[in-house]
Amino acid sequence: MDSHFTQLSPHVYIHHSHVNTGIIRDGNKALLIDASGTSIQSTLTELGITEVEKILYTHHHRDNVAGYPFPENVIIGVPKAEAQWFNEVNTFWNDPKYRWHLYNCHPHNLMLGNSISVSETYTDSMHIEWGPASIIVLETPGHTDGSLTYVVEVDDERLAFTGDLIYDEGQIWDLYSLQKGQQTTDYHGFLGARDELRQSLEKVRESSPNAIVPTHGVVINKPDEAIVKLCDRLDYCYDRYVSISALRHYFPKLFEEFDGCEHHMPIRDGKTPPEFLRHIGTTWLIISETKEAFVMDCGSPNVIKQIQQMQQNDEISDVSQFWVTHYHDDHVNAIPEFQEAFPCETLTDSVVASVITDPTAYRLPCISPAVTSVDRTTKDGDTWQWNEFTMTAYHFPGQTYYHGGLLVEGRGVRMFFSGDSFTMAGIDDYCAGNRNLLGEGVGYEKCLRLIEAIKPSHIFNCHVDQAFDFTDDEIAFMLDTLNERENCFTELFPWDHANYGMDEHWVRCYPYQQEIRPGETAELSVEFTNHSLQPCEVTAQPILPEAWGTEIAPKSTTITGKSDEFISFFIPILDEKTINKHNTSERTVIPVDITYNNRPLGQFREAILLITN
User: Which of 1, 151, 156, 174 sits in a 20 to 30 Å window from 448, CA-based?
Assistant: First the structure.
């Protein structure tokens, strides 16, 4: 979409680009709300505005802040609760807790690449007077913890600039920003910020605006109808999530309001595992008739100690094969120590291997810096014999896309080790960052079709002592619910498929983080997943630090239907003398500006360069 502007009142204009920027005019002067990118200058010039005195920001996300060339002496006002992420954003990028073992999503990593100097901070009910406008500040958390709404009274109008609380009637910009824990960490909080969002929307509604201006979206001229429709859709989507959620097994108190719902799948009873299995933490062991052990996952040194004790007790002889179900830290943290203690063959799905052999290349929930050595990677249907058991491996994109499943047949049972993908209550899709894709042949639809086809007698979860299974009717119910979700979540977002709003990694940088020496060249790929049925045109441009004094030209490609494509860039790194001269940080954030099917998304993703000597 081409940049343009609309006029809402004699003194208020909206510049439309990758975000909506509010322009309050007073002669040749202006106050801006959520100024981002350079294209706004053309609108200011066309309006005859020569001086920007003040800029207000609704929240700290990079896509609605970055890229605007701040005029000298401009006053920048931000939410007080988020001032740190404007003034001292390096405290985010340099803190390991925001890089590894990610169980919390707040603040989200859509952070500024470099700090900007804040002049004023705002809290609830503050008033800002500027030119012809009187502005009321409302604290409206939901999209971020500290989001603000600015209610602008001017020209007998009340206009609410709401950030990303709402996109359009019944729609929001994305779902993963609403991932927030209630009784647990954010990791278990699928749509956990929905109540907070609802309260904020009600607060906006009570301020009686004539129109809502979202950061992403369209100007909403019927605020009440838009808000009611969004809340109703969120309720329905959440109900469809809860109806087959595995989390009901772990945290039943989270879902007490749904107790007795007849349209939810009942929770299955467990089954006693076969006597030749052992369960330690998140690890399952199979003990063969020869006393050899086949081990799955190792998240804690305690697992190693207990296996060694089993050897001393003559329960097992040695460990002859090791399988990794998925990359999450509670399954891989102790693998380097395990491999040193038990130098056996390590196998895993090829998609899992890409993460655990090079974790710095990814930024994902629950990721561990532990590096795993993999001897053999598997693909769908790869089969081998281990003692009296036949093993068949699958890519199993359940709890996370980066996940494998293992069918083990022998001694009268067909056991399926599903990692963390199921419990007796259903599917483990409670973290949007895990890439739980909706649609035919992907995500849990693919997983359930596999279970339907192979018909295991026992299904195992790494966190659950008991085995379980699903009836044909339950599998059909889960498949029908996933199809219903695909439809209702698609309605929730301004995209042609739900996965754009749910999969925050549909655009990703690879490698996410890499070490490079001064004077060398870094290679960076920007990867895209096309969730549409038709080909899509994409453009990417890495944004280098201003101090480097160089730019990288944008590149474009076409992604065919339902495929992944990438665009590669070569980034020249400054020599050590120039780096020192400009005081360039060793840890450099490289935002990437994205345009998708002519829709500008701004600095939508980022990569990290560690410049080392």
Answer: 174
Distinct helix (H) and strand (E) counts, the chain: 14, 33
The structure tokens listed for 369 are 């810096």
Q: Among 167, 188, 177, which residue's Cα sits nearest to residue 145? A: 177
Q: Strand pairing partners for 601? A: none
421 with 398: CB under 8 angstroms? yes
- 235-251 confidence digits (pLDDT tens): 999 999 999 999 999 99
Smallest Cα–Cα separation from 197: which of 218, 220, 185, 214? 214
CB atoms within 10 A of CB 85: 25
d(CA 428, CA 281): 18
- Spatial neighbors of 520 by CB under 8 A, at least 6 apart, are 573
| pTM attached to this predicted model | 0.95
What would the two tokens of residue 483 be? 């199809």
Average pLDDT, the chain: 96
Distance of CA 596 to the CA centre of its chain: 18
Counting Cβ atoms within 10 Å, is residue 127 exposed (0-12), middle (13-18) or buried (19+)?
exposed
Is the Cβ–Cβ distance between 591 and 548 less than 8 Å?
no
- Taking a C-beta distance cutoff of 8 angstroms, is the pair 324, 360 a contact? no
DSSP 3-state assignment of 483? Answer: helix
Provide DSSP, 65-134: TTT--PPTT-EEEEEGGGTHHHH-THHHHT-GGGTSS----SS-S---SS-----EEE-TT-EEEETTEE
Residues in the chain: 613
